[in-house]
Design brief:
This protein is an alpha/beta fold. It has 2 domains: 5-90, no CATH class; 104-264, no CATH class. It has 6 helices and 15 strands. A hairpin with a 2-residue loop joins strand 7 (104-107) and strand 8. Helix 1 (9-15) packs across helix 2. The longest helix is centred in the last third of the chain and has 13 residues, at 239-251. The radius of gyration is 20 Å and the shape is elongated. Residues 18-44, 90-109 are annotated as: Disordered.
Length: 265
């Protein structure tokens, strides 16, 4: 039976016309599926369904999502992340999810690790999905041997803005996005060369997010990212305490933020 599938030009270019037409005709496309975005059941025989192609260095995985959640698209991910997702889908990886260590980033002759916390912040009477980023040590400019912490100046140069009032939405930062794939946070992407994107932060293991956070992100199709120097926010056990720490950082002039769209799901 023909399926109500949306196959974007990018997905068609990756899988080929023959495979795309085969899927549209109902061959190889499931009738029922779990949406790769909201993780709830879908039915490609009854509702518009997006084809989402996750592409690694050597592997590609075709997934399906409600068209109301995300459009059909190609989502680049690392091979390690894709293999982990495949193990999760096939049931080979049954370990419980835990907050992922983040990717070390070069800081002159030192390396610092970026810690990311996912939480909801109330702005304009609506809960917004937020990422709170804090390194575990000073961040120097690439190639610098200075002991100065240039974390915030570097972000300001990349289009982030100082936060003066936590009740105001941060402005959109073009070219930046958050990669939420298969229901988990994989990376924060920054503008690359020739219109491409590269990973500014990438989880060694995809970071599980709460159902409420994922639902808010899918509803807004965007994420707020707040960043502060090492030792400013800390690991807060509750979202109200995280909000309080963010407000204190803003009052001290050591908090920057931006809004960024979702990349992928």
């Amino acid at each position: 039976m023909p399926r109500m599938l949306d196959v974007s030009d990018d997905v068609r270019a990756e899988i080929g016309d023959e495979e795309a037409d085969r899927l549209l005709a109902g061959n190889g496309a499931p009738g029922s599926y779990d949406c790769t975005s909201c993780r709830t059941p879908g039915d490609s025989e009854q509702e518009r369904t997006s084809t989402v192609l996750f592409v690694g260095e050597e592997t590609a995985v075709l997934a399906f999502a409600h068209a109301t959640c995300i459009p059909s698209q190609v989502v680049p991910v690392s091979e390690e992340q894709l293999q982990g997702a495949v193990r999760s889908i096939t049931g080979e990886d049954t370990a419980g999810a835990a907050p992922a260590p983040s990717t070390p980033i070069p800081t002159g002759d030192r390396q610092a690790t970026l810690g990311i916390t996912c939480g909801l912040v109330l702005i304009e009477s609506e809960l917004r999905p937020a990422l709170v980023v804090e390194p575990n040590g000073p961040i120097a400019r690439p190639g610098s041997v200075s002991l100065d912490d240039d974390f915030l100046p570097l972000l300001l140069e990349q289009g982030f803005h100082a936060v003066k009032d936590m009740n105001e939405l941060p402005v959109l930062n073009p070219g930046w996005s958050a990669l939420l794939a298969m229901g988990k946070l994989h990376a924060v992407l920054q503008p690359g060369s020739a219109g491409s994107q590269s990973a500014w932060w990438q989880a060694h293991q995809p970071l599980a997010v709460s159902d409420g956070w994922r639902a808010a992100a899918n509803k807004a199709q965007s994420v707020l990212m707040y960043a502060a120097p090492a030792g400013t926010i800390g690991h807060q056990p509750r979202e109200d305490l995280m909000r309080q720490a963010l407000e204190q950082a803003a009052a001290q002039g050591v908090l920057v933020a931006a809004m960024m769209p979702l990349a992928g799901t």
